[in-house]
């Protein structure tokens, strides 16, 4: 089995020394890569800038990228041959319309940046997903969590969507622990306890493998 995983943030350059980014550490995605590899899968881990070291497991091939466009190119190259796609990256939705060739100098009291939309990696690949392929996305919501997550599942053609809790202390960005809820297209819900990201990853991988087996 081959797994394509996206992980970490993306950095969208503004000038040679600045970028727009986010606080994703990549921990959840890297933990998923380890958990899939432990089950014997070959993993292509397409990672945005993360402080984490490349996983040492020989079954995990790490491809380092910076921008959403680079992540899309690397993910597209691996998607066709992958049996399972997991989109754990926190992709920047927008990038600066222009990348200045020289460092932007301080000038007026305000500065307005124009941003343009980035490619939606999961949604674009979702349009070419074959019946035997299995896609999993992540969602981070602050209102109407379940409804928004389910809407994302349909829009992006996911088989499962993993909803990150923002309400629980210790869950989400930067933490070593996480608390997630998994939804499928039928509206069935699986709740995971607050536990280490490694434990959450093992639980998610066994759920994904079971659901995929049931689908085949
Ligand atoms: N995703 C992606 N490419 C993007 C944006 C998101 O592949 N350009 C993936 C994420 O990796 C995640 C899922 O889509 O698996 C949902 O990401 P999220 O940021 O919650 O969704 P958005 O479509 O950006 O929706 P919104 O920001 O409106 O909530």
TrEMBL record:
Domain DNA/pantothenate metabolism flavoprotein C-terminal: 2-209
Name of the molecule in the record: Phosphopantothenoylcysteine decarboxylase
Pfam families assigned to the protein according to its UniProt record, in alphabetical order: DFP
Coiled-coil positions: none
Bilayer-crossing regions: none
Organism classification: Bacteria, Pseudomonadati, Bacteroidota, Cytophagia, Cytophagales
